[in-house]
Amino acid sequence: MQKRIVVALTLLLSGTFIQAQTKAADTVVIKVGEASKIKFTIQNKEDLETLKKYDFQALINDLIKKLELKDTSANIRASQEYLKKDSISVSKADINETKYTEDWSDDGEHEAWHHLDKHNKGTYHSLNFDLGMNNYVTGNGFPDQDNSLYTVRPWGSWYVGINSVQRTRMAQKFFLEWSLGVSWYNFKFENEKTQITKDDNSVIFAENPMDVHFTKSKLTAAYVQAALVPIYDFGANKRKPSLFNDRSSDSFRIGFGTYVGYRIGSYSKQVYKEGNNKIKPKDHDNFYLNNIRYGLRAQVGFKDVELFFNYDLNELYTENKGPKLNAFSFGVTF
Known about the structure:
Layout: E1 6-9, H1 17-20, E2 26-32, E3 36-42, H2 48-51, H3 56-69, E4 76-77, E5 97-98, E6 100-103, H4 107-114, E7 123-137, E8 158-169, E9 174-188, E10 194-198, E11 203-207, E12 213-233, E13 252-274, E14 277-279, E15 282-284, E16 292-302, E17 305-312, E18 326-333
């Protein structure tokens, strides 16, 4: 069915119908496919025993036929024909008319949300990966404009993040995603001869004087990181959509938030060839990198694909100890 269907299958059972109208109903909403819902409203919990005696497969089959014929005028009666064969007889007082209505407006969706079970308002966990590229900018733009030795090569400067994400529903389509994880900056220098050292005053970028064939030079920094991102999900998905989810999502979502990280390690590495051997020396040092990084995060997703963009508000290096650089990263979350 191409239209959006909201099916209200209301079971008002036993002789307590009038009294139950003054009480809050217990409602169960079952999602069918991508846009349809079946709603059960139980006014009296004692009616659950009667409910067990019905063959709902037969009832649903009749309901589907009416939907296919677009027959909205008639009612489906929960009569003796829907009782299970092994059920005891049910008195007429226990059988109430089950009304079928069809609503193509958004009102049905709002009503379903109003009666959402408390478990649908909870927090759901997922494990997500950020994979993309990183770079940094100065007050005048990218460092390559000045041909600086710390100019980064975009391809090969990978950003990697592993995050444990909790998604909490705050309103019908509004969520908070809060996460804790580990991330890595990999700054691959444009000049393979670039060597990072430091003295008592600052970090130093210079060309390695060795007479060998250099193939790579990079700086890597690892952080433990926490983030808080408010999300508006037009599909109201209680779980964060992901390529690894059992059920896909066709909704659009967008969010803006913040993050903070603490540096747990850093090193520089140069790769060069000496004869037939590839040498990969590493120098583990802080290189006057800031221990704290914090910034803004944007997320935009559609279906199972989500893009992210991070921008560090503070500088990469400690003040007056290195070049004034603000790092950023972007890529895909899966």
